[in-house]
Specification:
The protein is an alpha/beta fold and about 230 residues long. The protein has 2 domains: about 110 residues, 2-Layer Sandwich (Nucleotidyltransferase, domain 5); about 80 residues, Nucleotidyltransferase, domain 5. Helices cover about 25% and strands about 25% of the residues. It has 5 helices and 10 strands, in the order βββαβαβαβββαββα. The longest helix has 18 residues. The protein is globular. About 45% of the residues are buried.
Length: about 230
């Protein structure tokens, strides 16, 4: 049976899960800020131990591909590549927003659309649009929210809004219904998507794989004068 180790570090959540077609086997996660580096390898080891598996038992490593935190994505990718090289495992990259959408798809009706949102600072979000059947209706994009932004996306349909950027649309004027479904990025949501990708032969070239940062990191210049 195929077993997938999934790594989700695109946001403030550091989440690790192992699962197969029968379901989730083990999970470890924390929302503690700035803890990805110190917890990721520990969580991977704990998940393997709880699952009663070794790296040799895994089929592939699923990685949340972004967009999201530049640092978080780098930490997750570094861990995934290190394990993949050492254990001879392939990597499967899953769009972070697809994982978010998958986590709430059971709450969407046939005509509803799911809009996963990731906070991109200030009033900006990363988002994409999915049908209830997980068809990508609109690819990953970024948007600075204005009063009627959702009308351009939803076209009057019921919107299932989720992710850590969802709170930014709470006061938006929209012609249809908005359903806010609290959810965070979770490695569990990547397991089924990894199976689909694996069945379709979709893996990454480990040597050249890089996360989809979508835009350059926000780097601030130090105000300290080093010559003082």
């Amino acid at each position: 049976m195929d077993h997938f180790l999934c790594i989700e570090t695109a946001t403030e959540v550091c989440s690790i899960a192992i699962g197969n077609r029968e379901g989730i086997i083990s999970v470890q996660e924390t929302e503690k800020k700035n803890s990805h580096t110190e917890t990721i390898t520990l969580f991977i080891a704990r998940c393997l131990e709880k699952a009663g598996l070794t790296l040799a038992d895994l089929t592939a490593i699923g990685i949340s591909d972004g967009p999201g935190s530049y640092t978080g994505l780098r930490v997750g990718t570094s861990a995934a590549k290190g394990i993949a090289y050492g254990a001879g495992l392939p990597i499967i990259a899953i769009p972070t927003l697809a994982g978010l959408a998958y986590g709430v798809k059971s709450h969407a009706s046939t005509d509803d659309v799911i809009i996963p949102m990731i906070d991109a600072r200030r009033m900006e979000i990363y988002y994409s649009v999915y049908s209830h059947a997980m068809e990508e209706l609109y690819p990953v994009n970024n948007m600075i929210l204005e009063d009627h932004s959702l009308n351009e996306i939803g076209d009057g349909r019921t919107l299932i809004i989720t992710g850590n950027g969802a709170h930014k649309v709470e006061n938006q004027h929209y012609e249809g219904e908005i359903v806010h479904f609290p959810s965070h990025c979770n490695a569990v949501n990547l397991i089924s998507l990894c199976h689909d990708a694996w069945d379709n032969g979709i893996t990454e070239d480990i040597a050249y794989y890089s996360p989809s940062y979508f835009k350059a990191p926000n780097i601030t210049k130090s105000k300290k004068n080093f010559f003082d």
